[in-house]
UniProtKB/TrEMBL annotation:
PROSITE patterns: CTCK_1, CTCK_2, VWFC_2, VWFD
Domain VWFD residues, every copy: 215-394
Compositional bias ranges of the Low complexity kind: 37-131
Organism: Sinocyclocheilus grahami (Dianchi golden-line fish)
Name of the protein described by the UniProt record: Mucin-2-like
Gene responsible for this protein: LOC107559975
Record-linked Gene3D superfamilies: Laminin
Keywords (A to Z) from UniProt: Disulfide bond, Glycoprotein, Repeat
Region entry Disordered, spans: 36-131
InterPro entries assigned: Cys_knot_C, Mucin_vWF_Thrombospondin_sf, Ser_inhib-like_sf, VWF/SSPO/ZAN-like_Cys-rich_dom, VWF_dom, VWF_type-D
Annotated ranges, domain CTCK: 742-826
Amino acid sequence: MCNYIYLFIYAGCYPKCPKDTPIFDEENQICVETCISPSSTTTPEPTTSSTPTPTTTTMSTTTTPEPTTSSTPTPTTTTMSTTTTPEPTTSSTPTPTTTTMSTTTTPEPTTSSTPTPTTTTMSTTKTPEPTTSFTSTSTCICICWWSDWFNEYHPGFNGTFYLCGCYMARCRNDCIVEVFPLECPPLQNITCENGKDPVLVYDEYHCCQYYACDCVCEGWGDPHYRTFDGHFYSYQGNCTYVLMEEISPRFNLKIDIESVYCDPVELVSCPRSIIVSYNNLVITLINHNLMGGADLEAFENNKKIPLPYARNGVRVVSSGLNLILTIPLRDANITFGATGFEVSLSYHFFGNNTQGHCGTCNNNQADDCMIPGGILVDDCAVMADYWPASEICTPTAKTTSKPCPVNPDCDLLKSDLFKECHSHQSPENFFLACEYDSCHMSNPAVVCTSLQAYARSCSQLGICIHWRNYTNLCNIECPADKVFNPCGPAEPPTCADIPGENTIKVPTEGCFCPEGSLLFNKESGACVNKCGCLDASGTPREFDEVFVYNCEECICDKASKSVKCPNSKKCPDVNPVSCTEPGFVLVNATDPSDPCCSKQVCNCDVNMCPPMDTKCAVGYAPVLEVPDGKCCPVIKCEPKKVCVHKNVEYEPGTNVHIVDCQECSCTWDMDPKTQFFQIKCELVQCNKKCDPGYEYDDTNFDDCCGKCVQTHCNVNVNGVDHTLKVKSNVNVKFIINVKNGCQVQTVLDYINHNDCQSEKRMDLTFCGGDCASFSRYTEPGLSSCTCCLVTHASNRTVNLSCINGDVVAYSYIHVEECACSRTNCHKAGVGHTLIEDSQRKRSLGLP
């Protein structure tokens, strides 16, 4: 109990407080962790002079409020007797800090042994030495019954027990109760195995302080762990595991981690979510994007929650890069982001009472690899398999290390960039993790996780490292109205902050309002230079600012710090409008100068336009054009990019038949007058070179070019070439065998039919060439003659363009094969035969 140190310890029924708040505060009628010494002085009620009551107790107590001060206390001796003393005698020696409680008993009309109501005056003074004594007249109770409050008693005769307010009590054999201050041992510095700075914590009575190491567990990469006591190991699990739970449940806190395989090539895993169970709440922090930027969300009992969040002693905020969950009553902070997690717990609440992947929090790495049942194993990666959260998890196969070059960005951990932090927190484990990740994961940005984890560890020591600008893999892009800060507050200041309100003290990196501005509130995310109001669209407004929103006149009211819209906006009268142009119709439209008002306008509706004639002459294309200020389009015929001849369009590069014996084509040259492409023609070039025995003949004017006509016969006799004129006689008997030269001949020409012509010259085929024939001088006049004839042909079709603009299909014969066929020879005289055909084939004989 607080406020009074009773000389008498009575049996009775009192409230029973839980272990975490074991002391009952009588003034406020609640259970508390520690007694709070009153700072005010209560003036005693006036007393009247009367006969003293049978029992009067004056208590003068010496208290040392500073738990860290060591002093030798003077025992307080309480003597109990049955004698009645008219006046209490009290003696006290001042102490460095003394709380004196003086009790005056107001007499009752009738004498009674029951204690009377008292008024207590409490004051604090500082004097050199603690000495306290109690004198009392009462019946001695040799068994020091402590209380039925806890249903227990402290049998005296040298039994020592804690009272309250950092005082102890001891029952002596002579039925005297000694009350004396709790003596605190001297402070001793310690070194934390996890590299963190030691902190001062109170003992179970909240009287004495001593150094201890808070519980900080980290995980990052694929993944790597540092236990509460700083032991480093890597574990590639693919399941949900117990990250931390209490060995002896006290505060109903349990933290699980879900790890999943996250690389398409290697069997390495990444933390996907953290599940925090506290009392009746289950909060899940999850990252949906394991291969890139953070995509973070929070869930309460599997239902997505908006951030910031506060309920039942749990708070969750977001910095954009991290989610931060805090339990202020238990001094617990859990940070989770794309690069990993950190669990920070107070040793005061959780020291010597944790197990799981994060190990035991007792500043002793030797027992971190503990499996259920308190059994120790040599390797924490083996231990991790033994902590499945609920389901049966498959044991993880160990990955084999492979030699590979270290990513140069890993060297930043040991460079001068982090030099300030090296003496406080070794980068070695973070460097090993960075080296491992760069060798086993295909995403090169995974090295950022080790860099960020080390930078976060340094920031908790008060050392802020601006490291992201030194690598091209780990850049962070912030919105235009925010700037990046590697050590910003988890809860940035806002206009809605309440003075003295507790905020999350964990430093975190993220995007924050620039200097000179602050968040309007925690929900909006809007940065403002001056505090005021937010309108319904989320736009910041200054106090007393008048504006129009949703066609209402609004003001940011300073008194209520809210937007008020008492009046609707008034609009001027509408002037009548008449629409006379084709296609225009009268409609009501928003006034561009005032979006809250409307006016009458002539609006274009093309469905109201009259019909149009879209036909243009040959060589022209219709183009729709809407003149300025008009609604309905008009047709404009513009020249096409073609050549035009006799009302026929020709594309550039195509042949055009204009006159015989000329080759004409459509060019890309523009005629500036007609805007059509020009047609250019050239005379057909005739080949006038003939073989020996032939001469060029151009006397037939129906053809563009002449032909090679045979005028002589070429004969080789005994190796000597002879040229013989046609129909000339020779005085030598011989036979001329003409070589078989019958074959398919081709000529390039237009196909014409009934004022229609092919668009280009066609390959026209026919049979031509010499065939063998002879006339032998014999009695019966033996002879043989052959002609070059068609043996195989096919029909082909070509489109002919007509003068009237029509295009018709026309079929013609295409010769494909020719051969020499036998025919009858004609007799030219006695004793010899003369053969003549269309190819001038001759067989000459002697007379």
